[in-house]
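so my prof wants the structure for this chain in the tokens format not the other one, which i didnt know existed until like an hour ago. anyway here's the sequence
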Amino acid sequence: MRGVLCYLRDAPEGREAMAEKLVLVGVIPEIVVIGPSEQVVWLSDTANLKIEFDPNRCPFQSNVFQAPSGRQLQSGPPRPGIKPGGYKYRLWMNDQLIGQGEVILRER
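here's what i got, hopefully its the right format
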């Protein structure tokens, strides 16, 4: 089953609002497509999460994202100047590798 939800949320003071692509862990989409002004948000209510991109091939400022259960992992926007394309990541729940995903960065 795949689940992707896109919504706008008010940004914290001093930051621009951006569209988010929500990844509901347990309903894992194989691919999430984002633009240069969007971010990915991973969420699991039942497990600690860890998202790990290849450090040499990551569209975001960090290649590892971690959060306890019930907390959102937000990628932030893609790095400036990063090329459009597919970026694969591994998904860990409670320190167990459970799958892979891919973020596809489109031009606009």
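also thought this was worth mentioning. The longest strand covers residues 96-105.
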